[in-house]
Amino acid sequence: MGTGIGIGGLASGVQWRDLVESIITAERARNIGRLETQVSDAGRRRTQWQEFEKLVRRLDDTATALRSGTAWRGVGTAVSPSPSGRALFAATASSAATPGAYAVEVVDLARAAKLSGGVVADPAAALGRAGSFTVAGQTVTVTAGDSLNAVRDRINALNTGGTPTRVSASVLTSATGASRLILSADQAGRGGVALVDGSEGVLRDLGFLDSRSRTVSSATQAIAAALGVTMPPPSTIEVGGRTIAVDLTTDSLASIAARIRAAGVQAEVQAETSGGTTQFRLSVGANVRATADANSAANLAALGITEGTRASVRQVVASGGVFTDAGGATATGGTLLTSLRRDGTAMNLQVGDAINVTGTRGDGSTVTVGLTVGASDTLDTLLARLDDPSGGFGGGARPASASIGPDGRLRLEDATGGDSRLAFTIAVAPVSGGPATPAFGTMAVETTGRARELVRGSDAQVRVDGVLVTRPSNTIGDALPGVTLSLQQAEPGTTVDLTVTRDQESSLKAVRDFVSAYNDVVSFQNGQQVEGQPLALDSTLRRIVNSFTGALRTQVTAAGAFDRGTLVGMTLSRTGRLELDEAKLRSVMSSDLPALETLFGAAGIGGAMRTATQEATRFGTGTISSQITSIDTSTGRTRSRITVLQQRLDERREALIRQFTAMEQSLSQLQSQGNQLASAVAGLRGTTR
Question: Is residue 408 part of a domain?
């Protein structure tokens, strides 16, 4: 605080402000400086105790590892290489593992199921499908205004909260105008994606399931004749929202499939061979319902239409035009090439014209075949050339077959379901010369090949010593006690050796860590013995370290021949440091590991050391904690004394300033009165003259 008066020795001529500061500085040095030195010294001691506490805690950690026995039970694993050079699995072991050798065969890996729906042009457009289905037991309700994106969001909304479906939905766009809904299981296992369609058949309309007919003996024979029964009168049925006419007395599976495809819905005839007998069934990629026709339900019952499976869809490439003969009748295999018409217009194929077919099979391999038109050549002649296994689409690793459908369209169908690159074009080089012409028209994909089951959910299968173990995960931790197998690749029939052994190196490391931690404590104490160090000659520090040394000298009669640390390679040097003879320790580990566990156990060196370290580091009541608390308490009192003394010095400064200021004021007044008196005397002298 200041007086607000700034005379500062003008009257007295004395620089008393400097004198005041000198007085205050001297008094501060005498009364406060000593206390501040005490605070600084206490801070250095506190820091050193904190550093020492860190070292003791590390010693405590290493002693705990020896005391608990985990340091001695370390095990390692070794997996022999597969003859193929592939890494089939990795293995890790805990202290609970039992050393031994095991024969392991990875039969199969666990996989998370992934399903694909049908292809739609616009994922944001309304699908026009209404109904419900369940995913993992939870109901998904779809309205006619929902798009593919909306269905995705409805499914994902159920994969949240306390009872998630563990099924995620996404929309995959494979090409412009080709999007599909993908359902993925969040976890591996053969449980896969559990789907149940509702009565409305929404899942079938979305393409996740097909609709299947009963099997018949022929794909091309009339169904009534193939089954040998009388069929209901003709009617219509609804397929994927389209109305299809059927007459089972005259229709075959092939003709019905062609009619459904012509309406824009995926359909195919599938062959199934069992016991040397081949049967055929109709597979439709949409829901099939009865219409209002009186005989519709009866015809569906005769076909035996049911909810199907997740079978793959085979790609079909078809002609855009319809072929007929010269009389306008739908073309068949027996129709002469020279009499073919396309969409009612004569193609004018001539004898000697060259028909050139180019394309790719489903696997992308190229095909180039040709035919020179002869007078008796028919569509069957062309189909045979297309199906030629030596160079046509019927050969290669992924063959396809050609046909002329009852709707008069030329088709090429992949024999394998799934994504396909099947495609072909037909050009005609006139015998009269001139450029080739696309007389057969454009060939386009009628049914997109795709796999409904992109990944089949499966459990992991591993055979251990001949015993088959099945788990829904590729991480198997309960086949061998204490051993975790992480499966990486399956290789049925290949057995590799897994060896579980005691890990002496991990045990040695645990002892090395213990020795290092003890020596760090000793080094700290030795460093503090130098004059001027914060804890020099501190008896508490010496007592704590002595307790650790005493723990090392613990004798454990239960350990038998190895009842002291010196007998297993641990000795104290003249400088107080702990030294380790690793060769001796290895020998004891090999000959009597239980003795080591006992020596360093709860009743041995490990237990004694941990008791000593805990006594030193226990929060609040431990020796080190008490030292730090004592320093903090003492420092707090000293700081309070400094505050009080500083306040007194500030008051002393103000008092001195007031005294000197009063003196200056008095001197100034005396000087003013003296000046007035001198002036008066001078005036009197002048008057007298």
Answer: yes
The pLDDT confidence band at residue 13, using thresholds 50, 70 and 90, is low
**Residue 356 exposed, middle or buried by CB count within 10 Å (0-12, 13-18, 19+):** middle
Domain of 493?
75-110+459-502
Query: Which segments of 218-362 does DSSP mark as H helices, in order?
Result: 223-227, 253-262, 296-303
HSE, CB side, 13 Å, CA atoms: give it for residue 450.
28
Q: How far is C-alpha 444 from the geometric centre of its chain's CA atoms?
A: 41
What would the two tokens of residue 501 be? 């052994």
Query: Over the stretch 141-200, which tens digit does the pLDDT of each residue have?
Result: 999 999 999 999 999 999 999 999 999 999 999 888 889 999 999 999 988 899 999 888
Instruction: Check whether residue 326 and residue 438 sit in a common domain.
Output: yes
Angle at 205 between CA 203 and CA 209, to 5 degrees: 50
Neighbour-count burial of 619, counting CB atoms closer than 10 A to its CB (0-12 exposed, 13-18 middle, 19+ buried): exposed
- Pairwise CA distance, residues 116 & 169, whole Å: 10
Torsion angle in degrees (nearest 10) through CA of 676, 682, 685, 687: -70
Residue that finishes a domain, picked among 158, 179, 205: 205
* 460-464 vs 467-471, strand pairing mode: antiparallel
Decide if 361 contacts 387 (C-beta within 8 A).
Answer: no
Q: Look up residue 561 and give its two tokens.
A: 């021949």
The one-letter code for the residue type at 431 is: V
Do 401 and 326 sit in the same domain of this protein? yes
E strand or H helix at 593: helix 593-599
Query: Tell me: the pLDDT tens digits for 517-566?
Result: 999 999 999 999 888 899 988 899 999 999 999 999 999 999 999 999 99
How many separate domains does the chain show? 5
Please calculate the CA angle 385-387-391 and round it to the nearest 5 degrees. 75
Instruction: Give the mean model confidence (pLDDT) for residues 320-326.
Output: 94
Contact in structure between 123 and 525 (CB atoms under 8 Å): no
Dist CA 240 CA 472 (whole Å): 36
Longest dimension (CA), the chain: 172
HSE-up of residue 434 (Cα within 13 Å, Cβ side):
7
Contact between residue 403 and residue 383 where contact means Cβ atoms under 8 Å apart: yes
Which of these, 264, 271, 212, 238, lies nearest to 452 by C-alpha position? 212
Sign of the alpha-carbon dihedral angle for 63, 64, 69, 74: negative
Angle at 219 between CA 217 and CA 220, to 5 degrees: 115
Distance CA(268)–CA(673), nearest Å, equals 132
Q: Kindly tell me the burial class for residue 147, based on how many C-beta atoms sit within 10 Å of its own C-beta (0-12, 13-18, 19 or more).
A: middle
Complete DSSP assignment for 274-298: ETTEEEEEEEESS-EEE-SSTTHHH
Q: Quick check: 393 and 413 in contact, CB under 8 A?
A: no
* Cα 96 to Cα 465: distance, rounded to the nearest angstrom: 20
Report the SS3 class of residue 139. strand
CA–CA distance from 160 to each of 165, 166, 168 (Å)? 8, 8, 10
Same domain, 85 and 130: no
Same domain, 487 and 474: yes
Q: Compute CA distances 218 → 189, 214, 257, whole Å.
A: 38, 12, 13
The pLDDT tens digits for 460-518 are 999 999 999 999 999 999 999 999 999 999 999 999 999 998 888 888 999 999 999 99
Q: Collect all residues with Cβ–Cβ distance below 8 Å to 669 and sequence separation of at least 6.
A: none
Judge if 155 and 221 occupy the same domain.
no
Q: Which of 205, 226, 261 is the last residue of a domain?
A: 205
Q: Which amino acid is present at 45?
A: R
Both structure tokens of 258 = 């062609």
Q: Is residue 257 within 8 Å of 268, Cβ to Cβ?
A: yes
Burial readout 85-95 (b: 16 or more C-beta within 10 A, e: otherwise) = eeebbebebee
